[in-house]
Amino acid sequence: MTISYNWLKEYIDIPESAEEIGKVLTSTGLEVEKVEEHETVKGGLRGLVIGTVVTCAKHPNADKLSVTTVDVGGDRVLPIVCGAPNVAAGQRVVVAVPGATVYPTKGEPFTIKNAKIRGEQSEGMICAEDEIGLGESHAGIMVLDTTVANGTPAAQYFNIQSDYILEIGLTPNRADAASHIGVVRDIRASKNRDIKYPSVEAFKVDNQQLPIVVEVENKEACPRYSGITVSGITVKESPEWLKNRLLSIGLTPINNIVDITNFICHELGQPMHAFDADQITGKKVIVKTLPAGSKFTTLDNKERTLLATDLMICNAEEGMCIAGVFGGTKSGITEATKNIFLESAYFSADYVRKTSLHHQLKTDASFRFERGTDPNITVYALKRAALLVKEIAGGQISSDIVDIYPAKIENRTIEVKDKNVNRLIGKVIPREEIFAILERLDIKIIDKKDDQFTVSVPPYRVDVLQEADITEEILRIYGFNNIELADTASTDYLAEFPVKSIDKFKRSIGELLTGNGFYEIWTNSLTNQAYQQKHKLTFKGEPVEILNKLSEEQGIMRQTLLFTGLEVCAYNINRKQKDLKLYEFGKIYYKDGGQYKEEERLAFYLTGNVETENWRHKTQSVTYYDLAQQVQQVLIKCGVTNLKQETINDQLLEYGAKLSRGNEEIGKLGKVKPVLLKDFGVKQEIFYAELNTSLLFQSANPKLVIKEVVKFPEVRRDLSLVLDKQVNFSEISNVVHTTEKRLIKNIIAFDVYEGENIPQGKKAYALGFTLLDETKTLTDDEIDKTMNRLMKAFEEKLGAVIRK
């Protein structure tokens, strides 16, 4: 929620800075996330002044330039070269003096400097409105009709105001603070200052020329409805002060009537709506629901299908507005509007929330109504708006206030025991101080006893429902920081360590894979025994056969996730979806020594192209290394390190690797054998990985490790090796980390080459090493010694030839 610092100061004395008020509000529970300066014009027109063109002559060396002298109120007139066709002596103009930075409507800001233009000295710039961000016109310089003194700051002349904007992370329970007055109430409670509420004493009805009949059929959805008419208005642009108020909080001014309703919404927290009274058929407003399926076109020109629970503001024939959410096209305010009907109502939060969610309409009005507004402010807001309309748009109030409020929403009464307040706060606060805090929060003390008291809570405090809420109100204003720690402080723990959740773990891994372009699948735990019988495949333990099987295709519990996953791949490939990145969390089942067992697994499937064919990149088929990269990311997220990687001869894989840590097998990955793919009718390569989810979960560390950013620079060194073809990267990595554990922070292979100029049975690795000492800057001597040790280790342990 966005709040204007200057706007707040209209209602309460604030000698503190915006940053200090931000801290005050945060301490009361209205967390101020950001305080930033706001200017109605970028740069605030600093360095720009009002001046008078004293002389103007044609530039001797340029046909389209003029040489002028301008009085800007200083000791001397400034010579300025001007390119505007309309510049002339005697004009009052806006001048940017040297050193000023101007912010054009379009383009980048620039600073004015003394310069020579075609041989003539120029010490400033006479400005057009688009050059300083005041408009779009570039037809010529701005010529002012004014008698202000030369040298008057342009910001003062144009009433450019500097403001500070407070971004408040409003929690859903604090609907009462969704306005400037709502925020001011917390400042009052914290600082014990009086609020200057806008006066409506001048309100009076001018005539009865435009009565509107109001009927509320659904009183559950609309407990209170207030309205009034104003006739003879002029719809036009709002005055500067009103536009500045709206612009400061990020709203775009529309016209004076709509701007007033938006102003009231953000001033008092009471959403309002203005109808063109001449478009209200039958001069009747009916608050009701329409039959389900009714069509209604909203202000965004979208036709919407209504629910039976959508509360509507209707005229005698049709709907005009979705109550509390969005207006319709037929009754909105236009430049031709002369008479208006102002609505100020209290709508049920449940009804508005359901309607807003269904139609996906989130507005300033629905934001407040669905959280809960003040039912007792509707008439006050109506008077405030009507007076502003008369002031800004003219006209006369042409009806009495219609106020349908059949069942008044009373204050809540809550009994509070002193001992419970003291226990929850952890400190005994004097009763009189407690009562003063509550009174400043509009919570009245209606009964006092020796050990308890009774309070009356206004309806706008929708979050204060019980004794504990009253205690919270006392504490947030008294100040959490004012509760001292006891001499014998102690802490209770529900558990020594947080309980790790397998479901949260899976969700975090799933989010990682989904973010990398994978889709999750969920396949049947029953599979076809023929898959493994045909190829004489054996797995851990014995297969679990279903006694009452429905079919042979689902005759046993799966012992690997591969076959059910291949069924999914085949189904998609046969339907022209050939680029697949899939993962599945599932279980495998087997029987061991008469005991039925199950184990968690995570499976990956990659096939097709790395990315969809497009004009920027050539199509490239996925490879084993694409799969290995995804597996590595999962292992890193799980905190699984120091893995041993071995080439394996697997019954399911044409080639691949086994990943293990000590005696535990973490999983395997590789290319699925074509003979198995043939059973599924798949003619493209599929890469498969299967990891032990339980072991990954055990390794996962929920702790967040935070380290200070290293102050010393990293160093990159590259090395080229010729190795036997069977040597893999994991062996190279092991040699590196056993040779140098401290300084080598990372190693990458940025090129692998086999072919011409490389002996048969060999391949060349181009390696990049990142070296870093976290305590000091590395010297060339240290770097050279480290690289020499690595080269010697490669030669001795891997039989490498160093390419130079």
The number of domains is 6
CA radius of gyration: 38 Å
Strand content: 25-35%
Distance, first to last CA: 63 Å
Number of helices: 20
Bin the helical content.
25-40%
CATH class of the largest domain: Alpha Beta
User: CATH superfamily of the largest domain, please?
Assistant: Bira Bifunctional Protein, Domain 2
Spatial strand order of the main sheet: 28-31-32-36-35-34-33
Q: Which secondary-structure class do the elements indicate?
A: alpha+beta
Architecture (CATH level 2) name of the largest domain: 2-Layer Sandwich
Total number of strands: 40
Assembly state (oligomeric): single chain
**Spans where pLDDT lies below 50 across 5 or more residues:** none
Shape: extended
And the CATH topology of the largest domain? BirA Bifunctional Protein, domain 2
- Give average pLDDT, whole number: 91
Largest sheet: 7 strands, mixed
